[in-house]
């Protein structure tokens, strides 16, 4: 019996198609649903015909179909790299990651700005990602180690390829975005994706006051071939994409599921996701992400590394790192009053804090904070003289979720990454 060989693959989500690269070559797989998924990534559902279907399910099906068609295989891979628009924040990347994990054991997400082949002999360049309705401009620089990194990013939300075809003069907005994202720094070249149409390429080349090079979609997923490298380097080169950023292992099948007990929660926030950008560099493979486990209480779930354990308490779920004292993450869900919005909940919370008086345990109240790429209401609780709790509160689908990260004084930096992971991964489903 011959064991099956599972190859690594790379996917680029284009307008109306998925580009798939594997050791056997590069294939374009047409798929109109990709456009809907990209445009509706913030929505929980998209319409498939007249039926609303979860966005992550539609996206997962598209990726699975593309992998199967592009690799002429089963649609599953040991590892897959997937591009995403460079302005996407952690919420949107989380949706894409969840979809890709259904077809791959390991998932690597790469911003398009870094999937574009780095131009030789250039130290600084701008990547323009032309979508049908919007364009993203990213400034990329080589660091001291020679590796490219995204150092600035701007979304031009009202100008995409469709706008440029109807109104070519709007290219001036993209030219302005190049100058804005570059600031006082000079750039060697502007690389453009999503503009293989000759007329569109001409518009961009003529309207941008820099050297413009159009990059083909197929080049965003090119894997090195055996002819590119020496024999002893071929194993590493075949997975070059998968070595430029941490791998995200697929979630284990086992889950910790705990029932929700009703409780009054102190705070809430609206569930609308914001576009959030953070500088992205290419860390080494040694920075691989830890395996994650899902913890649930009622309709609410979070994902944390396997070294965390859960204990159900009345009205809440206590999460603690195994073998580490003085730290915990508390997850408290509750229903939102009908008709309540973020502003009302924030005002109610602020009143409750004020009722405790100036000597109360709550400080640093912020009704419009941002944490882990998500909009939250935040405040700090000091339950005793040795510890603090940073509360981050969200509201989604009629459920308010308070995430409290408790730590000893001076130990916030040690807990912060896991606190961010918890808030970033909050999901609200059916109870």
What topology does this entry show?
Layout (H helix, E strand, L loop, with lengths): L8 E6 L2 E6 L2 E6 L2 H7 L5 E4 L2 E4 H17 L5 E8 L5 H12 L2 E8 H4 L8 E7 L4 E8 L5 E9 L4 H6 L4 H12 L6 E5 L4 H10 L4 E3 L19 H4 L10 E2 L6 E3 L33 E6 L2 E6 L2 E6 L2 E6 L6 E8 L6 H14 L6 E10 L2 E8 L5 E10 L2 E10 L3 H14 L1 E2 L3
What does this protein structure show overall?
The chain crosses the membrane at residues 257-277. Keywords: Membrane, Transmembrane, Transmembrane helix. It comes from Prescottella agglutinans. InterPro entries: T7SS_Rv3446c. This is Type VII secretion-associated protein. It is a single chain. With 431 residues, the chain is of the alpha+beta class. The protein has three domains: 9-111, 2-Layer Sandwich (Nucleotidyltransferase, domain 5); 116-219, Nucleotidyltransferase, domain 5 (2-Layer Sandwich); 292-428, 3-Layer(aba) Sandwich (Protein Transport Mog1p, Chain A), CATH 3.40.1000.10. Helix content is 23%, strand content 35%. It is built from ten helices and 24 strands. Strands 17-18-19-23-22-21-20 form a seven-stranded antiparallel sheet. A six-stranded mixed sheet has the order 3-2-1-6-7-13. A five-stranded mixed sheet has the order 10-9-8-11-12. α2 crosses α3.
List segments where confidence is low: pLDDT < 50 over at least 5 consecutive residues: 1-7, 224-288
> Helical element count?
10
**What's the CATH C level of the largest domain?**
Alpha Beta
Strand residues, percent: 35-45%
Helix-and-strand structural type: alpha+beta
CATH architecture of the largest domain: 3-Layer(aba) Sandwich
Spatial strand order of the main sheet: 17-18-19-23-22-21-20
The total of beta strands comes to 24
InterPro entries: T7SS_Rv3446c
Protein name: Type VII secretion-associated protein
Keywords: Membrane, Transmembrane, Transmembrane helix
Transmembrane segments: 257-277
